[in-house]
Amino acid sequence: MGFHYTVETTKTMDKAVEDLSESLKEESFGVLWDFDLTAKLQEKGMDFNTPYRVLEVCNPKEADRVLKEDKLVGYFLPCKIVVYEDKGLTKIGMPRPTTLLDLTGDDQLKGIGLDIEDRLISCIENSR
Asked: Which domains does the chain have, with CATH numbers?
């Protein structure tokens, strides 16, 4: 299964991000930050030209639920979804919440993580 979930689309990055943002809203996840990593690296003098954006997303209800279970889960928040160009395609992906929450050893958190993961995968799939 791997630590990540990644799909490809022929949509432009902007369209993929727009559609992803809409899909996330339907699951009550908001985009807290849309970070243009490429622009930031270039601003710092790096020769990085791959269009690459990192979206930090959060569902307040789910954040509250996992933080009440274990405050250390805040180390994994907010969830990240990346959108980038690779060989002429746009890729959309994320680290799997279940992989991160497995590190806690808490079975209750693993169950919550699976629900969150399924919902985020659905959002990614709907934005392809």
From this structure: 4-123 (3.30.310.70)
